[in-house]
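Let us walk through a complete example step by step. Step one is to write down the protein sequence. Step two is to encode the small molecule, zinc ion, as a SMILES string so that its atoms and bonds are unambiguous. Step three, shown after the inputs, is the structure prediction itself.
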Amino acid sequence: MTSNRFCVFCGNPPEKKNREHILPQWLLELTGDPKRVVNFGTNFKDGSTVKFDWLNFCVPACESCNSEYSKLEGRAKSYVLTLLDRGALNSIEYIDFMDWMDKVRVGLWIAYHFIQGNPTNIQPSFHIKTRIGQKDRMIAIYPLEGDGVGLNALGTESLIFHSQPSCMGLRINNILIINMSSDFLFSARCGFPFPKSCFTMLDGENPYMMHTSDFSITRKIKHPLIRKNIIKPSIHLYQPILGKSEDKRFQSGFVGDYSSFDAYLAKHTLPPYPSGKGILYFQHLDRVEPIYDINQSIEFENCTGIHSKPMYRIVQQIYEFQNFLYKQEKFLAENRELELNHAKRTKLLLKWNNNVIAHYSGMRNV
Ligand SMILES: [Zn+2]
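Step three: the predicted structure of the complex.
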């Protein structure tokens, strides 16, 4: 794959050639010398270490796409500055910030394909525009002690991230953000529609298409929203998002929703109904709190005592969650050999992450 075949936003050949910084200039300036050189992980094609200066870390983009997203960058900068000061944002601002995290996550995924030589042989099947605000998503924000300055993309070099860019970390000076997003990640536990059957076909008419059926809805919130332990963050927000559907059975126009009006979904989604975009749910240690007032300030909570963990533990967690999410996916194929090969490949991807996890869990307060 050459680096100038498609626009990172829309996936078309870039009209009016332009280059997009996946990690924008304002973020580079905020976190050190923007011209610094950073170790970017391994090029899997020849095993060499790839070093890049972030400033030259660009991917192709159309001029029109680029300017469309530059406004989001301006707002994201003000959110980041607020978070570095441990300030409060409201739901509207956090949702906008999650859009920016989607942009960064998918952008890094596409960029790493260029940098690392596409080791898992995946053709990017989506681009930033088709992935912003389309699936259930969450953020966990951790305060880091001290006045450290720096920028790190965490977990983005793993083989699992190459196959499925669903979980990553982003350290910006004294905060570390974990971001996860995938289909029906916690829809059931938010009381939203979810498929009882969900699998991806590796071959057949539409290879790599996800097949969902037998939808159900409980309209009840279950604690915790993700059934895996997570180190307590200061900000812990979840947003369920319904996918759009042309299927006439889904009367509201969203996947899994058979009714034309659902009082629970109306109460738990952003206006105007039906938007399909959930309100935010704050995951506390002992309960889940839906935030109905979208203008209410969400305060940055303290993480002290037993809840204060060193950075490497939080980083380790990113790789654990990548494995957790990958193991939840079900892949089938009509061709038995293809299915077996995929199972073998899955083992390899999980093992790669397990090695990283073992490395971090061997660290003791250094
Ligand atoms: Zn474009």
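Step four is interpretation. Residues 138 and 247 are 27 Å apart (CA to CA).
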